[in-house]
Amino acid sequence: MLLKRIKGTVFGGAIGDALGTLTEEMDRETVKKNYGGAITDFVEPSPSSVCPFLKKGQYSHETQMFLIALEMYAEKGKIDEEFYVEKLIEWVKDEKNHRYPAGGHINAALAYKSGALPDDARVKGTEIDGALPAVAAGLFRWDNSEEAYQEGSHLASIVYKDDILIDTAGLIAVAVSTITGERIFLEMEEGKLHFLELLHSFSQVEIVKSYIDMVITTVKENIDELDELILRFGNGNFVLEPFALSLYIFLKWGKDFRKSLLRAVNAYGEFGGDTDAIGFLTGALSGCYNGIDAIPKDWLRNIENAGYLKLISEKIFEKIKNE
């Protein structure tokens, strides 16, 4: 089952990113104008999208950054800052394959490329993009939440220096570790609250704790309306907004991969939002919980680089077995 959860996380994140990129930063009316309504499947990106150069089923930089972290674990079996930075530099040199890169990652990569030391290369920022590679730490440290938090935080700190982002990255790793290790039960509200309380106990930053408290309150209220959730948590790229919204979508609908993912990638609301990041994180969490078999077969076939996603998942599994 561990391999199925790893594959579910990797494919789920990439699929959520690819679907969410279609609607990123578009409001409801723009989505309707460009796609005829809510996204339900892979389609060619609209010329009005943030990534009009992508093809049907291609993902954005969220998945690219995540894959760099996965490759590090697959090769080294641990956090290796030198390896990670080298991969970032390779990525920044490959301008043809940049996928609407986050400013933080590209600025840090350019600084490291110029020979800057970590204290000078790390950037100040709170974009969710900087926390998402921590999903890889959660997978690799699936049996130890403490190590997951430390390594998820560490990964984020290679690029960013903001405490809110670094703490949230650690919590994302804890969430993935807990799900992968089957230490969460979504069947009852009590299990969901226990999961959130665990995340709260790891957090070291008060504003991060306050967002988890909002998710706890919302779980108790059992809110269904997506627009209300967007108003409550936000859906922009400030790390805590997509983190909290994705957590709630996962806890509310995550036992049904397709349902939860489509809510995530259509979480644009009246003003637009960071739907590819919300899709990536929700897809990774729900894919991890349900395993690869729960993901629609046509999505598995049509996601970009499906063969490589399968291969890197298997490499991570083999590395874990041999630890």
- CATH H level, superfamily name: ADP-ribosylation/Crystallin J1
Helix content: 55-70%
CATH topology: ADP-ribosylglycohydrolase fold
User: Can you name the CATH architecture?
Assistant: Orthogonal Bundle
List segments where confidence is low: pLDDT < 50 over at least 5 consecutive residues: none
Percentage of β-strand residues: under 5%
Q: What is the string of SSEs from the N terminus onward?
A: HHHHHHHHHHHHHHHHH
Our measurement of the CA-to-CA distance between the termini, rounded to an integer number of angstroms, reads: 18 Å
Main CATH class: Mainly Alpha
Class from secondary-structure proportions: mainly alpha
Number of domains: 1
Number of strands: 0
Instruction: Based on Cα principal axes, name the global outline.
Output: globular
Summarize the topology.
Layout: H1 2-21, H2 28-35, H3 61-76, H4 81-93, H5 103-113, H6 118-121, H7 134-140, H8 145-159, H9 163-180, H10 189-202, H11 206-221, H12 226-233, H13 240-253, H14 257-265, H15 275-290, H16 297-302, H17 306-321
Helix pairs in contact: 1-14, 1-15, 1-17, 3-4, 3-7, 3-17, 4-5, 7-8, 7-9, 8-9, 9-10, 9-15, 10-11, 11-13, 13-14, 13-15, 14-15
